[in-house]
Design brief:
Largest sheet: none
Distance between the termini: 20 Å
Shape: globular
Number of helices: 12
Helix content: over 70%
Length: 331
């Protein structure tokens, strides 16, 4: 099973079909985990994506899966999925900084300092994430494998046919619900500075997309997925850059604090236990250049998105969703 829902599978009970797809997504995570720690540079990325797709599917089909998938298992999956977030953010910021080598001479010390700081932080976060993944993920995957391998079905006490919700019916309802949530959230996004609203909209788009990915047999699903990927990428870029801007501002404060403490210790002729830090006057110009660049680029990405995604394009996405749900109800 490749994680796709054929028309035959859509006619199956939702409890069964949801588990079939969950096991396929579980296999993807197992494959990425088998490559994790090797020389495969994409293994951690694939593992992150696989965990998110699996968790999103289990979350969407909670009513169909809760008879066997325990809350404790869900919480363990949530914690491991979140464990890789910090390392991912730093990797994105470091890649962006690598494109900013052509800075004024006065800004270069700050650029070098931020690069070293992020590399050290990334190494630390990767070690923490790797340790948690190696120690906890195998047992979690085994638990999930057991929990999605069976399900319970109601048996009528009186004579009569057993009626279960089909996967097509469940998917149609879920897709409509997730689309309504996405539509509400995108209506609340008005500026690049609204990082919280952008993040919530991006998550809504991602969760809807992870449902649609199982329906590649339907052209309307593929078209809607392509639109959601475009929205998700644009909002992801804006969020990443705005978060980097805030991290730089926080780091300027840290450097200033360390410098003030070091000067106070020197004036009192006592030793300071802080790790060595650069002079603020030396690195602040470059740090602010990077912060201003991140803000400017985030604003530009948002404006490009806002110009491209007018009401007509959003209406087109809604029509694709309506077409798809209509097709599902006729399976």
């Amino acid at each position: 099973m490749n994680g796709q829902l054929s028309r035959e599978m859509l006619a199956e009970p939702a409890k069964r079909a949801a588990r079939v797809v969950a096991r396929a997504r579980l296999d993807v995570v197992r494959d990425a985990h088998a490559r994790f720690g090797s020389d495969d540079a994409r293994a951690l990325h694939d593992l992150r994506v696989g965990l998110r797709r699996l968790r999103s599917w289990l979350r969407a089909f909670r009513p169909e899966l809760d008879d066997t998938v325990r809350g404790k298992t869900r919480r363990r999956l949530r914690d491991l999925t979140h464990a890789t977030n910090a390392a991912r953010d730093i990797e994105v910021w470091s890649a962006w900084i690598e494109t900013k080598s052509e800075l004024p001479a006065r800004a270069r010390p700050g650029l070098r300092y931020v690069t070293r700081w992020l590399h050290a932080d990334a190494d630390s976060q990767r070690r923490k994430a790797s340790k948690r993944i190696r120690s906890r993920l195998p047992a979690l995957l085994d638990s999930l494998e057991r929990e999605v391998s069976t399900y319970t079905a109601p048996v009528p006490a009186e004579d009569g046919a057993l009626i279960e919700t089909t996967m097509a019916e469940a998917m149609a309802e879920l897709i409509q619900r997730h689309h309504r949530r996405f539509a509400r959230r995108i209506d609340r996004v008005h500026a690049a500075s609204e990082v919280g609203a952008i993040h919530r909209c991006r998550i809504a788009a991602k969760r809807l997309r992870y449902l649609l990915e199982a329906l590649d047999e339907f052209p309307s699903a593929k078209d809607a997925t392509a639109s959601l990927v475009e929205i998700q990428n644009a909002f992801g870029d804006v969020r990443d850059l705005r978060l980097f801007l805030h991290r730089i501002v926080e780091r300027v404060g840290v450097v200033a604090m360390l410098e003030a403490r070091r000067r106070a210790a020197k004036s009192l002729a006592i030793g300071a236990n802080d790790s060595p830090s650069p002079a603020l006057a030396r690195v602040r110009p470059g740090m602010l250049v990077l912060a201003k660049g991140a803000r400017k680029e985030a604003d530009a990405v948002f404006e490009t998105f806002h110009a491209a995604w007018d009401e007509a394009r959003l209406a087109s996405l809604s029509r694709n969703i309506e077409t798809l749900t209509s097709e599902l109800r006729n399976v």
